[in-house]
Amino acid sequence: NENFGYKNCSEGVLNFGKIRYLVSIKMEQMFVQYKDETNLS
Asked: CA–CA distance from 15 to each of 21, 24, 40 (Å)?
């Protein structure tokens, strides 16, 4: 049963890493788009 808790914990860490990765990509895309828009004007 102890092993099961460890598996859940590591899965949670992996999911957290994936979410952070996706958020950083999204923020980067928004930043690039923002820079493009400010360069136009």
From this structure: 10, 14, 38
Token pair recorded at residue 32: 């690039």
Domains of the chain by residue range: 1-41
Per-residue pLDDT tens digits for 1-41 = 566 667 777 888 889 999 999 999 999 999 999 988 888 65
3-class secondary-structure state, position 1: coil
The structure tokens 């914990």 sit at 9
Sign of CA dihedral 19, 20, 25, 26: positive
